[in-house]
UniProtKB/TrEMBL annotation:
<dbReference type="InterPro" id="IPR032877">
    <property type="entry name" value="Transposase_HTH"/>
</dbReference>
<dbReference type="Pfam" id="PF13542">
    <property type="entry name" value="HTH_Tnp_ISL3"/>
</dbReference>
<feature type="domain" description="Transposase IS204/IS1001/IS1096/IS1165 helix-turn-helix">
    <location>
        <begin position="95"/>
        <end position="143"/>
    </location>
</feature>
<keyword id="KW-0472">Membrane</keyword>
<dbReference type="InterPro" id="IPR029261">
    <property type="entry name" value="Transposase_Znf"/>
</dbReference>
<keyword id="KW-0812">Transmembrane</keyword>
<feature type="transmembrane region" description="Helical">
    <location>
        <begin position="20"/>
        <end position="37"/>
    </location>
</feature>
<dbReference type="InterPro" id="IPR047951">
    <property type="entry name" value="Transpos_ISL3"/>
</dbReference>
<protein>
    <submittedName>
        <fullName>Transposase</fullName>
    </submittedName>
</protein>
<feature type="domain" description="Transposase IS204/IS1001/IS1096/IS1165 DDE">
    <location>
        <begin position="160"/>
        <end position="396"/>
    </location>
</feature>
<feature type="domain" description="Transposase IS204/IS1001/IS1096/IS1165 zinc-finger">
    <location>
        <begin position="46"/>
        <end position="89"/>
    </location>
</feature>
<dbReference type="Pfam" id="PF01610">
    <property type="entry name" value="DDE_Tnp_ISL3"/>
</dbReference>
<dbReference type="Pfam" id="PF14690">
    <property type="entry name" value="Zn_ribbon_ISL3"/>
</dbReference>
<dbReference type="InterPro" id="IPR002560">
    <property type="entry name" value="Transposase_DDE"/>
</dbReference>
<keyword id="KW-1133">Transmembrane helix</keyword>
Length: 402
């Protein structure tokens, strides 16, 4: 900016409050440095926030002092008079000055700044940084997220992933719907009931529901029922959900074999859980011998291990027909092995076979990106979710959303 520019012009550009102009500045240097910018009216027309009519009847005016962004290291406040209106439309209340929300002690710009701080630090840290109490900071952040929420009006999901997030030490759940193609969170709901997911589809609207082609999810009947009721999407149970079932069964076999083993053999079992559950191709070379030695000594564990590896390999099969054929062979192998824990896995696979076939058809998984899981972990660690679940949900949308 050129030197000739007048100070007043610089101020009116930097401190632009529509409908108002700067009429005075005062500085206090007592405890903390404070600047108060006094605003006067630049327009005399005041409009009703309800019907936008120019209002001439005022019931009074009230002085407001609100926090604004720091002024060169000084705490900055705005002081202005706000009118209380009585409009022909029936509205009775304060005018809307635009740069401050009703009943707020800060300008919208200041709230946005506090909101940005809360993206990078905990509420407590942000509160101590700006010198406000944490409840105020939390409410500012909540309000700034809420006011920026766009809902589902601008999204057109084609493939969705439905998942749950445990909170309060796994006693309570949130339902999280993600756009699988773009990786962002579309929606978060309280609980994991059919009604929870119904609420998402209702908000999305019937037309967009019909455009959803694929829904990837866990074998969780309430979600399945909801997807069937509202969409024509193919339900997919992805490989990670199936792999989880077979790993749980293998782990249970491992525990059972350990309990029934002799003392010497039990020693071999110690600290091998991770090694047994690990995908064989990922076993480190220096641990292979240890693993093989254990498997050689226990026939049941060996068979169970081989069956696990077979199933995981089938889940990587790219060709639909081959995958389905191999899955049928695997089921026959399980029957032959006589391992009861795996009979349960086969039963589950048979009950949900359509969704596993759909997985082979679409090849889509609900594996949230590592970035997503890290973000959720971070939000949880900052303890947003434990006292104020609404805030936790808003933070998920803000940080993992579009
Ligand atoms: Zn009005």
């Amino acid at each position: 900016m050129s030197k000739r520019c007048k100070y007043s012009m610089v101020f009116s550009t930097v401190y632009n409050f529509p409908g108002f102009k700067i009429v005075g500045l005062s500085v206090m240097t007592m405890l903390v440095g404070m600047v108060v910018i006094q605003l006067g009216r630049s327009k005399h027309k005041v409009r009703c926030p309800c019907c936008n009519r120019v209002v001439k009847r005022f019931e009074g005016s009230y002085g407001r002092l609100v926090r604004h962004l720091d002024f060169s290291g000084f705490e900055c406040y705005l002081y202005f008079e706000e009118y209380k209106l009585h409009c022909k439309c029936g509205y009775r209340g304060y005018e809307d000055v635009g740069f401050v929300r009703d009943y707020s002690n800060c300008t919208r710009a200041y709230e946005a700044y506090v909101g940005r701080l809360c993206d990078h630090m905990s509420v407590k840290e942000a509160a101590s940084f700006v010198g406000l109490d944490w409840k105020t900071v939390k409410n500012i952040d909540k309000e700034s997220i809420r006011s920026a929420l766009k809902g589902l009006s601008e999204v057109h999901p084609v493939r969705i992933g439905v998942d749950e997030i445990a909170y309060q030490k796994g006693h309570k759940y949130l339902t999280v719907v993600r756009d699988v193609d773009h990786g962002y969170v579309l929606w978060v709901g309280l609980d994991r009931k059919k009604e929870t997911l119904n609420a998402f589809f209702q908000e999305l609207g019937p037309e967009k529901c019909q455009l959803i082609k694929v829904a990837v999810m866990d074998m969780w009947d309430p979600f399945i029922a909801s997807v069937k009721e509202y969409t024509r999407a193919d339900i997919v149970f992805d490989k990670f959900h199936v792999a989880k079932k077979v790993n749980e069964a293998l782990d249970s076999i491992r525990r059972h074999e350990f309990r029934n083993a002799g003392k010497d053999e039990q020693k071999e079992f110690k600290k091998k859980r991770f090694l047994i559950l690990l995908r064989n191709e990922n076993v480190p070379p220096d641990r292979r011998e240890t693993l093989n030695s254990l498997l050689e000594k226990n026939q049941t564990l060996y068979s169970a291990y081989v069956l696990k590896e077979q199933l995981l390999s089938i889940l990587d099969e790219k060709c639909y027909d081959v995958a389905i054929r191999r899955l049928e062979t695997w089921k026959a192998n399980v029957q032959e092995s006589g391992i009861q824990e795996y009979d349960k896995v086969v039963k589950t696979i048979n009950n949900y076979l359509y969704g596993i076939h759909n997985y082979f058809k679409h090849g889509v998984t609900n594996a949230a990106s590592e970035g997503f899981n890290n973000k959720i972990g971070l939000i949880k660690r900052r303890a947003y979710g434990f006292r104020d679940i609404e805030y936790f949900m808003l933070k998920i949308i803000k940080i993992c959303g579009l």
